[in-house]
Specification:
Elements: H1 2-32, H2 47-56, H3 76-85, H4 102-115, H5 127-139, H6 158-165, H7 182-195, H8 203-215
Helix pairs in contact: 1-2, 3-5, 4-5
C-alpha cells in the first residue's frame, strides 16, 4: 500500500518540480543574458533545458564558449550551433574535437534531440541544417594528427601525451599552437579532465607533456 502511495506521489509531484526548475532556470538565464541576448536562443525554448542539465549534472557538462567567441560568429554555421547545440548543454567550440570526430558526435546529438523533441520545446535540426552544422564544425575543428605521425617519436613525453589527451578527443597536432601558447592550453585541458572525472596528470607528467608540446610547437 505504501509503495503504491509513493509511486502516485512521484507521478503527481515530479512534473510540478520539473516545471518549477524550468521557470527558474529560464528567469536566471534571461537576467544574465545582458548584451548577448541577440545571439542567445529564446529563453522559453532552449535555455531551461540547459539550465536544468547543469543543475542535475554540474560535473558532467564540460565547459563551453560564448556565441561571440565562436569562429566566424556571424556565419550560418555558428548561428546554428547556438540555435541547436545550446539547447541542452554548454556551447561547444569546434576546436573541442577533430574534423573526423564531429560527424559521429553530431549524429549522436541529433538522435538525443529527436528523443527529447516533445520536451520543453527542444528543436531538432533539419537535414539541411545538419549538413551546415557538421560542415562548420569540421571547418574549424581541432587540428589533429595520427599517433604514428607525431613528431619526435622518441621523446620521453610523447607516450604521456597520447595517454592523457586521447581520453577525450583525437590527438592534437603539436604544431597547432606556438610554444608560448601551449601552457595555457594544457592547463585548460587539465581543468576539463577534472570536471569530467578523467585521469589527471601529476606535476611531473604535466611537465613532460608541456616540454614535448613546446619543443615541437609551430614557429611564432
Amino acid at each position: 500500500m505504501r509503495k503504491n502511495v509513493l509511486i502516485l506521489w512521484i507521478l503527481i509531484c515530479a512534473p510540478i518540480i520539473v516545471a518549477a526548475l524550468v521557470v527558474e532556470a529560464g528567469q536566471e538565464v534571461h537576467a544574465a543574458a545582458g548584451p548577448r541576448a541577440s545571439l542567445a536562443p529564446p529563453v522559453g525554448q532552449m535555455m531551461p533545458m540547459r539550465g536544468m542539465m547543469q543543475r542535475m549534472m554540474p560535473d558532467l557538462v564540460p565547459p563551453g564558449t560564448e556565441p561571440e567567441n565562436l569562429p566566424a560568429p556571424a556565419s550560418r554555421g555558428a548561428r546554428l550551433v547556438v540555435q541547436y547545440c545550446w539547447q541542452c548543454h554548454n556551447l561547444p567550440s569546434p576546436s573541442m574535437h577533430a574534423a573526423a570526430e564531429w560527424p559521429q558526435i553530431a549524429e549522436r546529438m541529433y538522435v538525443r534531440a529527436e528523443r527529447m523533441s516533445g520536451m520543453m520545446g527542444i528543436e531538432v535540426p533539419t537535414p539541411a541544417d545538419e549538413d551546415t552544422l557538421v560542415s562548420y564544425l569540421k571547418t574549424y575543428a581541432m587540428k589533429s594528427v595520427p599517433a604514428d605521425s607525431l613528431p619526435a617519436p622518441a621523446s620521453p613525453g610523447i607516450a604521456l601525451f597520447k595517454d592523457f589527451c586521447a581520453q577525450c578527443h583525437a590527438l592534437p597536432d603539436p604544431r597547432s599552437h606556438t610554444a608560448s601558447a601551449w601552457p595555457a592550453v594544457v592547463q585548460k585541458m587539465e581543468t576539463n579532465m577534472q570536471l569530467m572525472h578523467k585521469r589527471v596528470m601529476t606535476a611531473a607528467q604535466r611537465k613532460q607533456i608541456r616540454d614535448y608540446l613546446e619543443q615541437n610547437a609551430k614557429s611564432p
